[in-house]
């Protein structure tokens, strides 16, 4: 859902982050005919249900292990914990998205509309911001290892304070979407939940997409790309002493894990943001193919919320050991 207009200037009906990426620049859009299609009607709820089940199971396991296992209380794991909380929060509201898709209208009232749309946007910003902070942390760790310096201020408590700061920043960024989220009736008199902008709607809608693109993609992606380029350059052009040569093996493993989680996040979210650029600069025709691509891109961005736990399970030995140990304790 997005914005509505009584004069027909811009009438789009889709969720804040979903189904909007490819068609946000088209006027008088109506998805009802496509949503009634048996393919979309059945496939989308199935995909969302799988993402929801995998995401809730995996992220809840990550949260449980990090909170319960003493050895898991590290700086990196504090950021991973918050990343899992953000993903869990999003997957918890996916059933409401599924219900709305099946019903073809919004039955849950205005308060829940504002909450769900805000959480939908939290999903865009929180993951990328926590990954950016993890990249900064990795950069500082690698730099300190190269110089054989200690980092006395890099503590679990400091990571917790930074995490609270990120949640505060994301809340501030998402607050305009909470304000504009409303329940309204579209041209077909169907109750919808979306971003209901003041006039001129087209200007506000484009501004909201540019706002999301810059704060939710361009700035954080530029930040961690620059950091990793500098990190690789320093590693390649610095003669490491025996202490730093293996980058302390464990630190090297964590750095690789953060890099892979980052790469998967980019793989899942880049199509969404690229499609936003296309939608802002081109009049995309409303065709079944375009709607299908839009659903695929949205599902891919949603899928990021359930992939991270499996990456930790494959890439982090300490997570595997802690998880196995806890399972053994529960079995006993």
UniProtKB/TrEMBL annotation:
One GO term of the cellular component aspect? plasma membrane
The record's Gene Ontology biological-process terms are: neuropeptide signaling pathway
* Compartments where found: Cell membrane
- Annotated G-protein coupled receptors family 1 profile domain ranges read 58-312
Keyword check for Ion transport:
no
> Which SMART domains has this protein been placed in?
7TM_GPCR_Srsx
Query: Which topology term describes how it sits in the membrane?
Result: Multi-pass membrane protein
Superkingdom in the source lineage? Eukaryota
Q: Does the keyword Membrane apply?
A: yes
Major location category of this protein: membrane
Record InterPro entries: GPCR_Rhodpsn (IPR000276), GPCR_Rhodpsn_7TM (IPR017452), Neuropept_B/W_rcpt (IPR009150)
> Tell me, what is one Gene Ontology molecular-function annotation carried by this entry?
neuropeptide receptor activity
Looking at the UniProt entry, the stretches that span the membrane are 40-67, 79-98, 124-146, 158-179, 210-233, 254-272, 292-315
What keywords are annotated for this sequence in UniProt?
Answer: Cell membrane, Disulfide bond, G-protein coupled receptor, Glycoprotein, Membrane, Receptor, Transducer, Transmembrane, Transmembrane helix
Q: What PANTHER family does the record tag this protein with?
A: NEUROPEPTIDES B_W RECEPTOR TYPE 2, NEUROPEPTIDES RECEPTOR
Sequence similarity: Belongs to the G-protein coupled receptor 1 family.
Protein known as: Neuropeptides B and W receptor 2
- Annotated gene: NPBWR2
